[in-house]
Recover the amino acids of this structure.
């Protein structure tokens, strides 16, 4: 999951999935989906400048973040 805060122009990270994940060579769909989304987010930041003032990411395969901290982030 990705939560962002800021006054920047919204953009859709859904374009990360224009090439369907299930058509990739690797069978690890979750990791492929996260990689595609991360690359798109980083690409937007590189091309357009920082697209959010603050972010919180929850990544289960990498055991990063927690639901409690994500909820705290979006609630503050």
């Amino acid at each position: 999951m990705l939560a962002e805060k800021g006054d920047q122009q919204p953009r859709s990270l859904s374009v990360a999935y224009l090439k369907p994940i299930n058509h990739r060579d690797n069978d690890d769909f979750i990791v492929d989906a996260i990689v595609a989304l991360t690359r798109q987010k980083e690409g937007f930041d590189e091309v357009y400048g920082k697209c959010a003032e603050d972010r919180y990411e929850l990544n289960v395969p990498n055991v990063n973040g927690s639901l409690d901290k994500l909820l705290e982030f979006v609630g503050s």
